[in-house]
Structure formats: C-alpha cells, structure tokens
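Lab notebook: predicted structure, single chain.

Context: the supervisor wants predicted structures on file for every construct in the current expression panel, including those that have not yet been purified. This is the next one on the list. No modifications to the sequence; it matches the entry in the shared construct table.
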Amino acid sequence: MYFGAYRVWDRFRNAPWQRIVRLGLVPVTMGLVIASGTVMARAADAGWRAAAVTIAATAITLATRLNPLWLLVEDFKSFADAMANKLAKEIDVADRSAVGRISSRPSK
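Prediction complete. Output recorded below exactly as produced.
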C-alpha cells in the first residue's frame, strides 16, 4: 500500500494539487499526534503526581528543542534508582529478620 501511494505521489511530483494535499494533511497529522498523546497521558496518569510529571514533560518538550526521548531516559534512570533503593531496603529487612531467627534458635 505504501509503495503504491509513493509511486503515485512521485509520478505527480510537480502537480499543483500535491501542495494543497500536503498543506491539508498537516493539521490532520498534528491532530492525530495530539489525540494519541492525550489518550496515552490519560491512561498513564493514575494520580496527581503522574499528571504533574506529564504536564512538566509536555512543557519542557514544547518550550525547548529537547528530544522527548531524553526525558524518557532520565525518567527511567530515576525509576531504576528508586526500585534499586526499595529492593536494597527489602533485602536489608529480610537479612535482619533472618539474623533474628537464627540467633533465637535454641541451642542443643
């Protein structure tokens, strides 16, 4: 399908209607991108903190020329750090309870 559309588009490369079609597709494409972003944001925003992160990421993306992938990378790094800290605390708690169980065993 894409190949066929490309061939037709290329064949009529200098046709005056191509500019009109391109200019007409810009708002349609922008609307689809914004609508899909809105759907994803609503699905991901379970609480006020997640909504605040989404709003901040949107503002940074619109105010700068920063690629949104960098925001995702930073978000993943902070998420991984938080998960590592939580896991370390759980391991520490498990180690302490294991030591308590071992020391409280009656000796033979």
